[in-house]
């Protein structure tokens, strides 16, 4: 159950594994976390898969802001990337994957039928950074637990072909690619949602980002959850963290208070949220 740490050697290997499997498939299912439709994308996926047909899947839609789920789907569609949002944990919308794949590949299927090839299964590969829910999606599609899942990055180890519907076959791939590490903000977003290992960042950095985000977008949720006053919300982020730490009875243990705040956010105690805003896309 060791967690992947992305050293250059691992990145090269992961890239090679995806490239080796690409020619086997008709379509790539790019899985992202709906809370991070940009930040949970792999930076070089476009370059790796090039012109291969693709379906963007915004998974964990149940945790993300419903309005922004739709906004992001529209955003991707405007950029010629067909996209759907699903909640694989509760099996919501998962069947759309096969349907959408058929739509995207309609021309190819029609050409096959014209040549007398009927009902050939569509072959697909799931690709995404750790912990976005690739294995959970596969388990839903094959309707039994084949792929190992776990709430920490790097669980899937080896690949296998799976019958995943009437006309869909999937590779349970370690088509795991690395997240973007270079950008500090992206790193904090990934850390807050649990996409990267806790030992790779400082909890207080991430909790301060969390407080800033919720103060900006959902101050009333912070207020309610932690019994804060309007004045408390006017505190700067470090002072607010100090205040909360004291309120938790943790004296000056900002580390533990931060971990608690992060956990609350991950567990949905602060409601549904999407960390990536549409206007951030233009700066990418
Ligand atoms: N709320 C919610 N949780 C989900 C959803 N999909 C997956 N999860 C949870 O997210 C965690 C990671 O899921 P996995 O399927 O193991 O993710 P993965 O992409 O295969 O991860 P690696 O194998 O580490 O790359 C698990 O705890 C899942 O239960 C979803 O749609 N909604
Ligand atoms: Mg997995």
TrEMBL record:
Family under the similarity heading: Belongs to the TRAFAC class YlqF/YawG GTPase family. MTG1 subfamily.
Function: Required for a late step of 50S ribosomal subunit assembly. Has GTPase activity.
Annotated organism of origin: Loigolactobacillus binensis
Keyword field: Cytoplasm, GTP-binding, Nucleotide-binding
Protein name as catalogued: Ribosome biogenesis GTPase A
Major localisation: cytoplasm
Keyword rRNA processing: no
Pfam family, one: MMR_HSR1
Family matches, as InterPro entries: G_CP_dom, GTP-bd, GTP-bd_ortho_bundle_sf, GTP-bd_ribosome_bgen, GTPase_MTG1, P-loop_NTPase
UniProt subcellular location: Cytoplasm
Domain of life: Bacteria
Keyword Transcription regulation part of the UniProt annotation: no
Domain CP-type G: 12-179
